[in-house]
Amino acid sequence: MARVVIIGGGPGGYEAASAAAQLGGEVTVVDSDGIGGSGVRTDAVPSKTLIATAEVMTEVEEAGELGVRLDDGDDNPANSVRVDLSVVNKRVKALAAAQSEGIERRLDRDKVRIIRGRGRLDGPETVVVGDERLDADVILIATGARPRILKGSEPDGERILTWEQVYELDELPERLIVVGSGVTGAEFASAYDALGSDVVLVSSRDRVLPGEDADAAAVLEDVFKRRGLTVLSKSRAESVKRQGDGVVVTLTDGRKVEGSHALLAVGSLPNTDDMNLVESGVSLTDGGFVQVDKVSRTTARGVYAAGDCTGVLMLASVAAMQGRIAMAHALGDAVTPLDQSTVSANVFTAPEIATVGLSQAVVDAGGSTAMVVKVALADNARAKMQGVRDGFVKLFCLPNTGIIVGGVVVAPRASELIHPISLAVGARLTVDQVAQSFTVYPSISGSVAEAARRLHLRS
């Protein structure tokens, strides 16, 4: 029986543990922060729970157009609804804890041993936890990442916050300054704006979400501006300081932005320090991320890595897949290497932005000859019924063959709508196969079929 030791209990770690147990391994998980890791306890689960409340507020705000009125007679229902952030955050933390406990029960059923503590390597075949030494045939590093902090702008957990600390707030920030316009910054800016805060988003680039589809980012910026959210583009924060009962964000050009709270969303750092990794033969990048191949192997024999500590598409779904792939490879099961071209991702803003496969940036740079079609949701019957004006469906297909190689969806619940496109990309379906599949009328998903039909006419 292979001895498997996993350092880290996040999505990469707990999914790997279950997979290894099912394959007959003797599995031990070393975890210091609680099973589920940041993905369950402080990141994905909490943030999307908060965003679920924000989604309701967005729907309420737009319900007046649909004829919804409250008893006070106000034509705008949003004027009569407020958010109790203390209740919201209590629910957020309770759900995160319950999810963590559920995963731990699952590992217990799989007969996985859990050791509380911090693990480090002593060579490629031994993990040390406190005074205990664990001999291993297979080691998986799944230690995740932590928020990056601006030098001289250390969070205090009260007014200057990281995304792990916002759930301790009892009252809604009056004026929230979000530093960083990547996925995390955009999601929290969108959420707190919907919850009722006055939000300022500081973006060092010329647009929000610089790593996402440019057309999608443009839609989101237009929505932000319409809702009164302030975007300071080409503005880099130099420092964030507490000032009385508020904060002051100083920009590199000397401007100062004042607010009640600041949220730092300026990237992540891998949790790979003080683990004796390099000394044990595990190569790290200059940024401290663990180098892995497509089956999650590191440069040390028998040592694998998964999740945010690898810097490979920092998504919980990718971490889980990396962990499962690692155990399959290590324990002799059938293995399909990680194919990043089939990974779907979602930005949980309002509207959501979902992507899979080939990007517009690659096409525009001449890296692909794929054909592109974009269908606006404003032309979709179901979207009109729901009062949805913003968004689109975009498909990419190869010329001649018509094989679908990518897609973008900007819409409410885009995270659900991307799935048929992900299936098409993964199974190499053609635009004709998608176009000839029935969709419900009326439905937002009908725009996926419409985009496929338009690509058929061009191929």
Describe this structure in words.
With 459 residues, the chain is an alpha/beta fold. The protein is 31% helix and 23% strand. The protein contains twelve helices and 23 strands. The chain has helices spanning 11-22, 37-41, 44-61, 85-109, 183-195, 214-226, 316-330, 360-364, 381-385, 414-427, 431-435, 446-458; strands at residues 3-7, 26-31, 113-116, 119-121, 126-129, 132-135, 138-141, 145-147, 160-162, 175-179, 198-202, 230-232, 237-243, 246-251, 256-259, 261-264, 268-270, 303-305, 344-347, 352-357, 371-376, 392-397, 404-411. It has a five-stranded parallel sheet with strand order 3-2-1-7-18, with helices on one face. The protein has a five-stranded parallel sheet with strand order 9-16-10-11-12. Strands 19-20-23-22-21 form a five-stranded antiparallel sheet, with helices on both faces. The radius of gyration is 23 Å and the shape is globular. The mean pLDDT is 96.
Quick description:
By secondary structure, the protein is an alpha/beta fold.
List the keywords.
459 residues, alpha/beta, five-stranded parallel sheet, 12 helices
